[in-house]
Every structure is written in C-alpha cells, then in structure tokens.
Design a protein that fits this description.
The complex is a heterodimer of chains A (143) and B (166).
Chain A lengths: L10 H11 L10 H10 L6 H9 L7 H11 L4 H4 L3 H15 L2 E6 L6 H17 L12
Helix pairs in contact in A: 2-3, 2-4, 6-7
Chain B lengths: L1 H14 L10 H12 L2 E6 L11 E6 L2 E6 L5 H16 L9 H6 L5 H7 L9 H15 L24
Parallel strand pairs in B: 1-3
Antiparallel strand pairs in B: 2-3
Helix pairs in contact in B: 1-6, 3-6
The chains are: A mainly alpha (143), B alpha+beta (166).
Chain lengths: 143, 166
C-alpha cells in the first residue's frame, strides 16, 4: 500500500497504483482477465494469473513485452515501470483527484507544465473542494 | 479573417441573453455569472509556488461550484482580464468533454484515450481558449472597455452594439 504523495518503488507497487488510479469511468478496477485479454489482443502472450502475481509481488520477472503491454493498457510510458518517474506519479495523482472531486471542467492556458506546477494544480483542486465543505479527494478506492 | 468572424459570431451567440452589469465591475460580473449559473463562484489568488510555468489563470468547475484562480501581483487590469477569460470559459459552457487544452497540459504523459476513459469523456479537442478569449473581449466591449485596458477612473464608455453584426 502506498500512501498519497509517496512514489511506489517496486514493480508490484507501481502496478497496484495503476489498477487503483486507472479505473474505467472512475468506477471499479479493471479485472485481471480484462487486462490480460486486452494485452493479448495486441499479440502479447500473458495470463490473468500472471498479471495478478505481478501486482501481488509474487513474480517480478516480466519480459519487456509484458511491461509494454501493461503500460499501453494503462496509458503510461513503459519507462514508468523502470525509472524513477515522479512526474508520472504526480499526473496519476491529479487524474485521481479530478475523478474523485467530480471536477467537470478545468481550463488553463498552458502547453505543458512542470511537476511543481502540476502539484500546484493538484493543491488548487483540493482547495476548491475544501471550500465547498467536501472531504478532500481520496488517493484510492480502498475505503 | 473569416475564421475570426466565425469565432466572433459564435461567441456572440454564447453571450445572447446574458446581461453585462452596469455599472460594470468584475465583482458585479461575478455575481451576475453566479446567479445565471445558479451556483457559487469563488475567486482565489493563485498559490505562490515559484514555478515559472504556472498559468496566470485557472478555472475549476466541480459539481458544486465554480472556482477561478488568478495571478496575484499582476496589475489590476491584467487580473481583470484573467478573470474575464475564465468567465468566458464558463459562459461557453466548456467542459472537459470538449476541452483537451487543460488536460493535455496537465496529464501530458498519460494516454489521452485512457484519461478519457477514466473521466468518462468521449470527445476531445476544440479551440476552447480562443472562444473563451472572444467572449471575454465581447464582455469588455459591452462594458465599454473596448480592447483598451479598463479606465483607471472606472468610468464607462458608450456601450458598443456588439449584437449588431449578426
């Protein structure tokens, strides 16, 4: 389990973060079967059991193709699994905040922001929520 | 030039039925917009972060209320123009559904299709910023500000008949 604001270090923790952040329609998580089936459609051989084992940390030997398939499914660069990617973590956190805060719209004039600015926008979304007397957005759906 | 006229015409239609308050002030306009939308409108100064690329204005629309964040320390007229631009977004009813400007700036490393799926958006991409700016310009015109900065004495000029060229 990775708390809000911390960056998961292991493959299992990063995959866990993706399952929790990237939920279709902001509802339930994708199932292991859905993930594996979608990756197989791209010609990469993978089983739902193996995806589950990777997330639980029981296996940590995926091939490059497996990582590419998982990254593509969850919409992140493959390097997310390999490098220190705090910038992508910030974006996932903001995506979750936008989803959980029921932000309908957000507009700004910018063509790409630094991690510091992305953190600032995350703070503004949270501030907007607190002004409205609603609880701050949760990082994941465990509660 | 033709596309500018089309933009202006579309923006005029967006403003149809919206009364620009007289005497004009940003506060009165915000109250008017809030009443027209039937929801609270909060103005906040942008937090100071030291990040050079933080935009000077940001509109966040939640299910409950509208929030406009504007740069601090900008001149009064610059600050007003920032707020006007964000109000332009509101009056155009821009939503994440048809605006990818904010999202791609914020979530540029994530696959837009995946972002859409998470936020349950189906459409993506139109020149929202231009439209917001045009609506802001039209409000300035109706307020008698023209394209010039607001008058320091707050006096209003003659109202242009901005609906005249339909």
């Amino acid at each position: 389990m990775v708390a809000q604001g911390e960056h998961p270090a292991t493959l299992a923790a990063r995959l866990d973060r993706l399952f929790k952040s990237v939920r279709p329609g902001g509802q339930r998580e994708y199932t292991y079967e859905e993930v594996a089936a979608a990756i197989r459609e791209n010609g990469i051989s993978i089983s739902h059991t193996y995806v589950w084992q990777l997330r639980k940390g029981m296996r940590d030997n995926p091939t490059k193709r497996h990582l590419e398939g998982l990254a593509q499914f969850f919409g992140v660069p493959t390097s997310y699994f390999l490098d220190d990617n705090s910038g992508i973590e910030d974006q996932l956190e903001l995506l979750v905040a936008l989803r959980d805060s029921d932000v309908r719209s957000l507009a700004l004039r910018a063509s790409g922001l630094s991690p510091a600015s992305i953190k600032a926008v995350l703070g503004m979304v949270q501030h907007a929520r607190s002004i409205e007397g609603l609880p701050p957005a949760e990082d994941d759906g465990d509660a | 030039m033709r596309s500018w006229r089309r933009l202006r015409r579309r923006s005029l239609a967006r403003l149809a039925g919206f009364e620009v308050p007289t005497p004009f002030s940003i506060e009165a306009l915000c109250a008017q917009v809030s009443a027209a939308r039937g929801r609270d409108l909060h103005l906040h100064p942008l937090p100071y972060t030291g990040a050079a690329d933080l935009p000077c204005g940001l509109w966040i629309c939640t299910v409950e209320a509208d929030h406009v964040f504007h740069a601090r320390g900008a001149s009064a007229s610059h600050q007003q123009n920032i707020v006007l631009h964000e109000i332009g977004h509101m009056l155009c009813d821009h939503s994440l559904a048809d605006d990818d400007n904010g999202l791609t700036a914020l979530l540029g490393d994530l696959d837009p299709a995946v972002v859409r799926r998470v936020l349950q958006r189906t459409r993506y991409s139109t020149p929202e910023e231009q439209e917001a700016e045009m609506v802001a310009a039209l409000i300035r015109e109706r307020a008698g500000w023209g394209t010039a900065p607001p008058r320091p004495d707050g006096a209003l000029g003659t109202l242009d008949d901005v609906f005249g060229d339909r």
